[in-house]
Amino acid sequence: MQWHHRIARPWLLPAITLILLAAMTSRHLVPDFSRENPVLRIRITQKGASLPDGFYLYQQLTSQGILIKSIIPAADGLVICLEDESQRSQAESILKDILTTDYSTQ
After folding, report:
1. Which positions ≥6 away from 87 have C-beta within 8 Å?
2. 102 vs 2, 40, 42, 90, CA distance in Å?
3. CB-based contact 37:67 (threshold 8 Å)
């Protein structure tokens, strides 16, 4: 009986591999990396200033209806990835109101 299962198993690994490859190449499962996400960059402009609190920024922006994918620390500031390009100018305006002159937004 053991010998019979060993003969049946050689097809199992290639079958699983094909299923995984098909799932990974499906448009619904893999994000579209060819499209660039709308982002806002917050940079430190004053020497000695620390990064703003990302969670606070998230709360402030989402309370105003801005949809955020992520907030990522960068070498010289933060990168805010937005869900929708149309909200970029509104988010930038909100950030200018809540951030001090120690920061610039782009």
Report:
1. 38, 65, 66, 67
2. 71, 16, 10, 20
3. no
